[in-house]
Amino acid sequence: MDDLRKKAKDLLESQAVNVIIGYGEGTSGAVRAIFPRKAEETDKLIYDDRCTQNLAVYLMKHEIKHMEKKGIVATIPAMRSILQVASEYQLKEDELVILGIGPDGKLVDIPGFKAMEDYLATQDFGIQEDDKAILRKIDAMSMEERWSFWKDELSPCFKCYACRAACPMCYCTRCFVEVNTPQWIPISANEIGNFEWHLLRAMHLAGRCINCGECGRACPLEIPIHLLTYKMTEDVQTDFGVTAGLKADMPSVLSTYKLEDKETFIR
Amino acid sequence: MDIERKLIKRASLGKLVEQLRAEGKVVLAPKKKKNVVFFEPINTIDEMSTDYIATTQSPKAAAFPKSDRILKFENGKEGIKFEGQPTSVYPETVVLGLRPCDATGFDSLTAIFNWDYKDQLYNDRLAKTTFIGISCASCDAYCFCTSVKGGPGNTHGTDILLTAVDGGDFLAEIVSEKGKKLAVSGQQYFEADSGADKEKFLANVPVKFDVDTLVPKAQNSFESPVWLEQSLRCIGCGACAYVCPTCACFDMQDETTGSKGQRVRCWDSCGFGLFTLHTSGHNPREVQSARWRQRVLHKFSYMPERLNVVGCIGCGRCSRACPVDMNLSEHLVNLAEA
To answer: What is the ipTM of this complex?
Structure first.
């Protein structure tokens, strides 16, 4: 933690960055994102097991984007989000300084996107065992059973869009759910409206989601919506051999055509 | 009317629920799914959860559902036909197990839905709803009802308020005419008051700020730097508004299939960027700090000014639900001390 604070302090003092996006103590034992802009505020930075929020989401937030040069405390999911978002031309390398955090919670030296790619190439990105178990359980279900599983899970959804807001990849200024000429999907938080919202969101994240699980964690109603995008990640991996968030210049897997693609309909 | 004190045994409460169901009433009570507690219809008291400080979802949906039909329309040979939503189909409903703060929340909603236009859907639903509250025996760090003139055993807004006393039985305070009517029709379940000291069974909710000092401060804080500082970590979702018992914003939507359709009103939130976006492309609340300010000032400045009611009951739901630890009472203390 001292290393982290020292590096953050140096960055602000030398004016290499205008803000550090990091973790600090919150209320009732929670941690929260903090944004030190003065060297003396870096004492408030912390890192421990409670720091699970994917801070990359703030890189796309209007107020913070406009702070120009930013330092970000980046865990592995945050690093992958940064590369993914950069590959979608939403971030530039020179506006960021990475304060990388390894799986052991220690500061990792990540001097640029190339170093981040090299570092990530040495890491494993497994999902949690309990999530894996539910995915396999859903795989084994019949179509009717799946429908009733998701109907039950999605029924309390009131469309607060915390899943969308917490996701670094959901940066559209106008989400498809808000396109109303014509209306794409029902706004109502009813059965069909909830299904269409969550399924389409998962589709939009296919090949882009880096499995941080932030959408599921953000849900105030504990709906396991991260399972939908996790499943998409598995399918993209199986069908195209592609893992998102490993390279800063990776073409989008679902909107890129290659001669060797196995589908024949386009040839 | 004067509050009448009775006693209702725990087992009798279950029988009362059965009687209400037999009379055809919908009984909404806290039900737990994983760690989340919702108000949902129950048939027997065994389905009800008692393991909650405040339910995750507030009881406001009893009078203001998340998605509610206003009218139906059909485009035919003779032009477009409209059919307004008949409110006579709304069922008689009993909300059981809401907290004293929750009951107060309907003051805000009623003020908003009757400010100018008298909202028939809301008013008719509310008229058919009876509230049987349960006092709070415990609280958590997010609770601040006592800072907004509420209290863990306040009777205001409930029709009957139950307080668990010695041996798990309930002191039943019959507060309103609606409560009296219910107590008369289920009179075999209500017994003579045992004289329990109610205060002894209530949570001790610390006062965090003085609302009479806060409101004038809020009224002069539009240009304050606190809004940006507090809201930098806000990600702009609607979780706070959707669990809030007093948030009343809604969006109108027409849902059409072929030549038929319905107009529905759906919950909306001032925290969303699209909420105030004009057709021209101009957005008077372009950034999250402006939206966060709107949320706080609506409750602590505009509502006291225009509707003579503070739009917050101190239930703490917004702060418990927030994925990024936006803690309202902390921010209000912040503002009071600014």
So the answer is: 0.94
